[in-house]
Amino acid sequence: MKQSEAHPNIVSFACVLGACSHAGLNGLCKDALKIFELMKQSGAHPNIVSFACVLGACSHAGLVDEGCSNFNHMSNFYRITPTVDHYVCMVDLLARAGCLEDTLNFIIKMPVKPVVVVWMCFLGACRSHVNIGLGVFTAMLLFDLDPKNATTYVLLSNIYADVGRCGEVKMLRRLMKDRGIKKIPGCSWIEGHKTVHVFCAGDRSHPQTEEIYAKLEELDWEMKADGYFPDSRHFLNPVEEEEKNLFLCHCSEKLAIAFGLLTMPPGTTIRVVKNLRVCADCHTATKFISKTVAREIVVRDVNRFHHFKQGECSCGDYW
Predict the structure, then answer these.
(1) Which of 186, 192, 158 lies closest to 301 in space, CA to CA?
(2) Per-residue pLDDT tens over the stretch 277-306
């Protein structure tokens, strides 16, 4: 091979950067930034795809300064016109970091029309940071742009529930019912005995239900002994605290994890897939479980992979 052929080119770097950016879903975002720097140092000019990868990695890791710097360099130094994908990454990056006012100004000044996903990212951040004013403003926009999207109603309900405004929560539920909009039920999948097992919250249809619930009760006692306390702040149903905690204990991913602990050999990594974003309580509980049972647990939710090991998660509690 000639010496010139031995040097990686833009295509080689783009492939590795893309892989590292995907690895950002697994908590390896800084690797993408290292590859990006190597690309620039080698003389290979980043292209539109390269910047999408690195901005996505910054978003998953909450690296605001790095993301803003690379976004500005893309336009000002490399003369690359940002696409909708780049703007979505920036909105997600700024909003999740809590810079809500800055994010709104960024959206307003975008040269392209904000698509639904832009406003949905912003609404999700309004929920995470409990900003009622901006949350309601964004939800009203989304009701016009995508009136049948149940996620808007759920996120706004969560914002109201976080501050105890039960009247508004009930109003939104009635509105969903009147408009025929149904919330997607949370489900989790796990493979065992060469079969995929599906669990929903409070599910009692599995043949090993009694064993699974007994295992959950055992885990609950052990976790609480280690300092775990159920987080029922986002629970929308008006029931007693004890009933809320019982429901939280029976979330779909917890049922799947309990099944995995019962059926998989000691030391085996437990892998669960969920169709929605993992909730705060389940995220905390799974960290405790991974430490209590000394087992690695991987949960793939709708946004990213969560690798739980010895009481910590690969996302660094930023998801």
Answers:
(1) 186
(2) 898 889 999 999 999 999 999 999 988 889
The hierarchical CATH code for the domain 3-178 is 1.25.40.10
Does the pLDDT at position 26 exceed 60?
no
What is the rounded CA–CA span in Å between residue 130 and residue 145?
23
**Cα–Cα distance for residue pair 42/8, rounded to 1 Å:** 8
User: Does residue 61 contact residue 29 with C-beta atoms inside 8 Å?
Assistant: yes
For residue 78, with 0-12 CB atoms within 10 Å meaning exposed, 13-18 middle and 19 or more buried, which class applies? middle
pLDDT at 99: 95
Question: CA 176 → CA 36, 101, 137, 138, 155, distances in Å?
Answer: 45, 29, 18, 17, 13
pLDDT at position 6 is: 47
User: Mean pLDDT in the chain?
Assistant: 86
Q: Which amino acid is at 24?
A: G
C-alpha to C-alpha distance for 143 and 137, rounded to whole angstroms: 10
Query: What ranges do the domains of the chain cover?
Result: 3-178, 187-313
Q: What angle do CA 102, 120, 32 make, to 5 degrees?
A: 70
Residue that has been written with the tokens 């997607």 in this structure? 184
In total, the chain counts a number of residues equal to 319
* Closest to 156 measured CA to CA, from 179, 180, 131: 131
**Residue 202 neighbours by CB under 8 Å, 6+ apart:** 247, 250
Find the helix or strand (DSSP H, E) in which 259 lies. helix 252-263
Task: State pLDDT tens for residues 134-189.
Answer: 999 999 999 999 999 999 999 999 999 888 898 999 999 999 999 999 988 889 99
